[in-house]
């Protein structure tokens, strides 16, 4: 009876040992790690099954002896292995290091290993070493990918900043923004070019405010389709053409007719919006036409509203479509605000919301302080547009 009980206990212990061995092997596979021992005096080497997998070695070939281990290490990392082994032999504490091996004979499969070793003590001192070997290739590869991605992102940001600097410098050369306000007879004019926050979205917004030979004030604003250097180039052509054509003294709708033909025949695959008008400083009549642009805002006696748009299609959309001329008689104390759609359009909100914000902010602008008023308006509507640039042209009628 005792023999039967002893046999059952023995079988129970053997069963537990077998379960423990299975669990240990499973843990080694999950962690991609195994254990190894090297005995210095006898030359015996013992590997767990997972170390064979890590080295890509057939268990039938047996483990790699310690003197032959360097042959499987990447040449640039052999010195690391040497230092590791020397530290184990000389010390009593566990030491660790990382180095690369080539998995399998003649293989190009480089693996990153982390090895933790400690001395194997015997009666006469250190008789060998044992420890854990883990394949960390996936982790290191992911880290290298993250590092490379960060490097590429930094380079992209630096390149974008440089491109932004170049494009803004080019815009400034083509379209210099006046310093402060333009003080003209009976009027004060302030302009703002507000670049998009994203470099790739710098576009072709432009303005013009200058006295004409006949004494009227030419006021114009517009936006050429597209972004980047091509849009800036087309903007320059369109604006310079307007400056030349305006010398004829023709009304804004006639100038739009000519610019439309220019875009149709010279600036292929391009469209543009624009408002072109003349303000007579004596009569205070603003005669203007528009090509697909949002109507100007008129602020009078604390009330802001958009003017009624005359008929006009996008420049470059159709040939022969007439542009109408509208006239608006301004009064002392009035504020006229011309702007491109980048001021009010945002991907995150409806355009009507942007218009309402702009109308509310425009009511607070005072004609004697246009510069500060435009700055406050930009703040009140949410700051610069991340996706598009914008131009503003404010005209205050003095008493």
Automatic annotation (TrEMBL):
Q: Which Pfam families match?
A: SpoIIE
Q: Which keywords accompany this UniProt record?
A: Hydrolase
Q: Does the keyword Glycoprotein apply?
A: no
Chain coiled-coil ranges: none
| Sequence ranges assigned to domain PPM-type phosphatase in this UniProt record | 184-397
The answer, when asked if Lipid biosynthesis is one of the entry's keywords, is: no
Q: What SUPFAM superfamilies does the entry give?
A: PP2C-like, PYP-like sensor domain (PAS domain)
Query: What protein name applies here?
Result: PPM-type phosphatase domain-containing protein
Q: Which organism is it from?
A: Nonomuraea antimicrobica
Question: Which lineage ranks, top first, belong to the organism behind this chain?
Answer: Bacteria, Bacillati, Actinomycetota, Actinomycetes, Streptosporangiales
